[in-house]
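haha ok so turns out i had the wrong file open the whole time. this is the CORRECT one, sorry everyone. sequence first:
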Amino acid sequence: MFMCNRLKIDVLKNFFLGLSLNKKLILMMLCLSALLLSILLTLHWQMERALVREFENQTAELTRAIQVGVEKVTGSYSTRESGLESYLKTLKSKGIEEISVISATEQIIASSNPTKVGLPVGPKRKELIIKAALGTQISEEGKTYNVMIPVIAGRTHYGYIHLQINAEDISGVQKRNTIKMIVATLLVIAFGIFISIILALWYTEPIRQVVEASKRVAAGDLSVKLPVDRRDELGDLTENFNNMVQRLREKRQLEERLREAEHLSALGQLARTIAHEIRNPLNYISLCIDHIKAKYSPGKGAQAASFETLVSGIKQEIHRLDKLVTEFLDYGKPLKMNIRCAGIEQVLKDVLDIVKAKADSEKVAIVENYEVLPDVMLDVELMKTCVFNIVTNAFHAMSEGGTLTVRTTTENGNLRLDISDTGTGISKENVEKIFEPFFTTKANGLGLGLAITKRIIEEHGGSVEFSSVENQGSDFIIRLPLINRQ
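then structure:
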């Protein structure tokens, strides 16, 4: 039973939340009108019942008062005591103020007011007697009604009974019910205002959030994303706002790629010039050094060893310059990718086999933790270059030894490759610059290795992230889309 009621409540709640603002306001006004009408009808029904009860009580008392008066005027009243005086004590609470019995000779022979007994009637009562004789037995004076009833038995006229009735009781009932209706109306109006305030707050808060988010977007922050938890106009507004921001993000990414493409085009032209102007002289210098080494070697002894060391140093510097030129040239060239289906485990194994000797010599422990993964579409050689660049940076950060951890998992339909080290890390302000071209923390190098790595991974439809804490280490996270094995 409880679950059934809860289900009904959820259905009504979802129905209300799915309504538009106009429909919600109309529904609220209809509910308030129905509530107010129900309360007013209930109060009106209670007022009618109270008035009927009051009339019934007063009619009964009037009947009793008339009976007592008739008995008095006809001389059949059973007691000599002033029954009217004692009886009036109960009648005053019922609205009857005074009862007088008038003889046929227009003399007050009994009255609830003892001071009037034995006195002749005054002008006002004579007027009432005349009106009663003409058929008008009731006259109104403010909130007091005068009732003059002739007492006639057969052909004998015994006199009159004069009643003064106060209408305050009935007016009081009407006033109380009127006050109840006014109070009920005010309560319903107050309730309606309260509901209106709640609805206003419920609608203005999301609008305020959209305004604040718009200011952030105008300031250049495109990472804003508002939660969409409504199904009305404001839910549509929030969803459209998120779509707009998403398109702005895509436009910014497109502009960044365009700028990068223009930059790469300029670098490509510069790289070809550098390759022509630097590489050819380097090759000539390298050949000359080989010629000098072969023709002018001192032979043996200390002088020969010094000569060999000098020539080897020159060759190493020439080789380093040639490598820098090659990196610069590769960054400026468009990528020619040979995409095929391959497993990431083999790529990692080939790279780590190359660096294991260096790891042993530099006291770096390599920890491998691989899951069984489906194949991915990739260029094996370019991906080896990416992993090698990251591993080389890790070794550079662990000059005094440490641990290199390589781990693969799956995440939301992607392959996730984590390469972590326990090296020196980099400062927080440099983390955002790590993939920028020509940024490097090394004494030597152009700073193009990680920029090329990011470019290759993005060309594979993946992404790469970097995080680092100074003196604790760094972590590279590569994500590549998976494919299912056939």
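The mean pLDDT is 75.
again sry for the mixup
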